[in-house]
Amino acid sequence: MKIRTNALAGIALAATAALGLAACGSGSSAPAGSSAAGNGSSAGEITVYNAQHESLTKEWIDAFTAETGIKVTVRQGDDTEMSNQIVQEGQASPADVFLTENSPAMAQVENAGLFADVDKATVDQVPAEFRPSTNKWTGIAARSTVLVYDKNKISDDKLPKSMLDLANPEWKGKWAASPSGADFQAIVSALLELKGEAATEAWLKGMKENSKPYKGNSTAMKAVNAGEVDAALIYHYYYYGDQAKTGENSNNVTPFYFKNQDPGAFVSISGGGVLKSSKNAAAAQSFLKFITGKKGQEVLQKGTSFEYAVASDVPSNDKLVPLKELQAPTVDPAKLNSAKVTELMTQAGLL
Ligand SMILES: [Fe+2]
User: Fold this and answer.
1) Among 201, 44, 56, which residue's Cα sits nearest to residue 140?
2) What is the pLDDT of residues 17-65, one digit of tens each?
3) Distance, CA 44 to ligand 1 centroid (Å)?
4) In order of start, what are the domains of the chain with their CATH numbers?
5) Which of 271, 311, 339 is nearest to 98 (CA)?
6) Fewer Cβ neighbours under 10 Å: the N or C end of the chain?
7) Radius of gyration of the chain (CA)
8) How far is the CA of 151 from the centre of ligand 1 (A)?
C-alpha cells in the first residue's frame, strides 16, 4: 500500500516536472548547465548500465526521476559483464551512464577511452580519495572488506592478523569466499596493487588449498551462520543488511575488520561514469551529479543498501563502523586491473 502511494507520488511529481519544463521551455528546473530539456518537449531519457545492486540503483532512479522528470532505463548485469559489453559496443553503445559495484570495471572502460570527463560540479562534491585523479568517472558509494566469523569456532586470539594469513596451513578448510564474484575479485585486485604479482599468486595458491568456494557473498555468509565453515571473506553490507531484516542468516556471525592498512581492510569504490558516446550527455551528467549529491548520498545513509556514503558530506548509516576507523590501505582505484586478476585466479584454479 505504502509502495503504491509512493510510486504514484513519484509519477505525479515526474509529470509535474515535465509539465514545468514544457511550460517554461528553458528548462529552469533541469540541473545547471543541462541541455537535457533544451528541445522543450521532454526532460529526456537515459539508459543506465547498472552493475550496482538493483535495489540501490532503483532508489536513486526513483528519486532522480521524481526531481527532474528524466526517465531512466536500466540494463542490469555484473561489473565485468557490463564493462565488457560497453567495450564491445564502443561508440554504438546505448549506455549513457555506467554504474558499478567495484572500480576495476570502471578502469577497464576508462582504459578503452570510452568515458567523458565527469562534470566539475560532480567532481567537486566527491573527496579526492573516492575518485580517480583522471576524473573520467567518480566514486558513488564504498564498501569494506570484512571477515565474518563464528565466535564459537574462532576465539579472538586466533583471528588472523592479516588477510594474507588465510593462505597459511592452519586455515585449511576454515574459510569461505565467492571467488567468481566481482566483489571478491576487487579485493584480489587491491592485493595485486598493494603487494605485487608474486605475493598475489602465492596467496591465491593458498586460497585454493584452504577455502571453500560459494556463489555469492550472502551464500558464503549463510554457510558461516549455519556452521558449515568458520569464516568468510566478504563485504560488510551483506552482514548489516541481513541484521536489519531478520538476522536469520547472520545472527551467528561476527564481523571482524583487519584494519592497519592491511589488504584485507580494502575499501572498494563503486563507480559511476558518463559514456563519451551518450546522446543525452547533459541528462547523464545530471544523474551522476544527483547520486553524488546530498539526496543521492542520503539514499545510502537512510536506505537499505548499508553501503558507505562518500560524497556531499553526508554521513554513512550510523549502524556501520565509520569509514575513518577502518584504516583502509591507500589504493588508486584507477590502477585496479581486473584482467590480470582473472588471469591469476584462473591460473590458481579458482575460476
Ligand atoms: Fe555486492
Assistant:
1) 56
2) 333 322 232 333 333 333 444 443 467 999 999 999 999 999 999 999 9
3) 30
4) 14-141+267-321 (3.40.190.10), 144-266+337-347 (3.40.190.10)
5) 271
6) N
7) 21
8) 24
Count of CB atoms situated within 10 Å of the CB of 81: 13
Report the predicted TM-score, pTM, of the whole model to 2 decimal places: 0.87
Where do the DSSP E strands lie in the chain?
A: 45-50, 71-76, 97-99, 138-149, 175-177, 211-213, 231-235, 254-256, 267-274
Single-letter residue type at 87: V
184 Cα: distance to centroid of ligand 1 (angstroms): 9
Sign of CA dihedral 19, 25, 28, 31: positive
- Cell numbers representing residue 247 in the block: 538476522
48 alpha carbon to ligand 1 midpoint, in Å? Answer: 18
- Give 314 Cα–ligand 1 centroid separation in angstroms: 21
Cα(101) to ligand 1 centroid in Å equals: 6
